[in-house]
Amino acid sequence: MNHDAYPDNYIRSILNSVKSIAMVGASPINVRPSYFAFKYLAQRGYDMIPVNPGHVGKDLLGKPFVASLRDIGRPIDMIDIFRNSSHIMPVVEEALTLAPLPKVIWMQLGAHDDAAAEKAEAAGIKVVMNRCPKIEYGRLSSEISWMGVNSRTLSSKRPPAPTQGMRLSLNRMSVGGGDTAASDRAAKNKSEQS
Amino acid sequence: MSDRLPGFSTLAVHAGAQPDPTTGARATPIYQTTSFVFNDADHAASLFGLQAFGNIYTRIGNPTNAVLEERVAALEGGTAALAVASGHAAQVVVLQQLLQPGDEFIAARKLYGGSINQFTHAFKSFGWNVVWADPDDIASFERAVTPRTKVIFIESIANPAGSITDIEAISSVARKAGVPLIVDNTLASPYLIRPIDHGADIVVHSLTKFLGGHGNSLGGIIVDAGTFDWSTGGKYPMLSEPRPEYHGIRLQETFGNFAFAIACRVLGLRDLGPALSPFNAFMILTGIETLPLRMQKHCDNAKAVAEFLAGHPAVASVNYAGLASDKYNQLARKYAPRGAGAVFTFSLKGGYDAGVNLVSKLQLFSHLANVGDTRSLVIHPASTTHSQLDDAAKVKSGAGPDVVRLSIGIEDKEDLIADLEQALSA
């Protein structure tokens, strides 16, 4: 997998197929990006599990925190890692001890670890790095367009009418739209320097 | 199929606009409403706290305006955009996110006269101090950099004479100084030049000109290239520091490569208030659909008119970068190979009186203070826009007493040339 530019269909198939998501590094503080993403994904119908050893005994939007992936005690489809790049490898190594294995390991915006990605992919796990599932969901459903964001998609199809709870869905046909090559290049240069 | 990149004309028609989910309307509806109903209390709180994408109030965002924003972002190759009431409003909103009182910004001396006024007077009263540099002398930008410099501002095709700026050279000065490069791309439009491809971090436009293109609606836009790292050194606290307006959110960490556009929306537009009317957004969107067709015709006509003027005995000189003899022709070939734009100046052997006479004799060209209309426009800067300057300052800004500025429209070029011919000989 080329981790610099993911095909829309790769991201769409992940977000359309996973049902349960364990978020490592989820924060109960309601101005943190992880809280935003957790709440957004829960509202889109995903079964969210907050993982953060510092908050065991509390809950996040009604979901109890667990200390580690092993403590979840049931199969999970995707692990969303909200930690910086230097903390990725131990999480991936722990994920590789789970049975069954997760189908997807997702690293948040700004987070990447090529060696960890290689290990996960060798075990048949799909990997996404340096992306936010909230932004990608919003982009592919076109919901993010309300904020003037370049969704990089075009469509002449009528999207599903908004309904309560699932306001816009990923059930939308589109083709590639405008690119953001300069931003992608800048992100690549930054990650190569760090 | 899904990852094939569409061409510019396809984006100009489609980007940002899908059929309306509720009614199936194919043209973008004009959402002429001030406000939007929340689903419930939690939805309202999520929107106000920036946790959810959605509409609250048209001063912060509007679905018609959002189509315009996404379309221009796509055409420029940016990550996101924000539409505002005018090009001037775009400049205020951009600099308010980046400058504190006492800071400096470097601006190219060759700018739209309105920008020179805004920077010199209005922005000075905010404590934002402009330092001028010469776009024909890249070293003058390097010399102007100080520890207080926060931004470099240039025009891609520069007023009033349509000169071409070496964006890449000035971008490397900005990168070395660790500040973003802002490019006003109004006179080029993304059809001729995409400044982000040449190192711009932010692009601004007066949508009133070629993008809207029909001289009927004011508007401005800010495009975020998603290229600048706002977190370094606490230099740009509106983006990097916890914002008290939003309970301590850090915008860059929350919104990644479109954080600047979000800052302009939720801090700039929300608090300063220059919102674009959804009706204007609709008019401008309709204009953009034909941008590639119009812009090519503007450029082709401009080249024909410039060549005619260059050969006319009453004309002393023509400044049009599309002419092979022009000093900016090399830069035009590099940055704007499809055409050097449609705004340029020429000077008359008869001086000030000949300029006034020409303007009064023209039958098709309209004498007014705008550019980028379907109609051809003319102005004699020395007797109008620049009349308050002394003669030396007029010459320095390219608006000497003998100079006439044209904005060439999309009429038949033979008719434009005939009109100029009769006015020059009258």
UniProtKB/TrEMBL annotation, chain A:
SUPFAM superfamilies: NAD(P)-binding Rossmann-fold domains
Compositionally biased spans, kind Basic and acidic residues: 185-194
InterPro entries attached to this UniProt entry: CoA-bd, NAD(P)-bd_dom_sf
CoA-binding domain segment(s): 14-111
Renumbered residue ranges of the record's region Disordered: 151-194
Name of this chain's protein: CoA-binding protein
From TrEMBL, chain B:
Cofactor dependency: pyridoxal 5'-phosphate
GO molecular function: O-acetylhomoserine aminocarboxypropyltransferase activity
PROSITE patterns: CYS_MET_METAB_PP
Top-rank EC class of the record's enzyme: transferase
The UniProt record lists the keyword Transferase: yes
Enzyme Commission number(s): 2.5.1.49
Alphabetized PANTHER family for the sequence: HOMOCYSTEINE/CYSTEINE SYNTHASE (PTHR43797), HOMOCYSTEINE_CYSTEINE SYNTHASE (PTHR43797:SF2)
Protein name in the entry: O-acetylhomoserine aminocarboxypropyltransferase
Source organism per UniProt: Bradyrhizobium zhengyangense
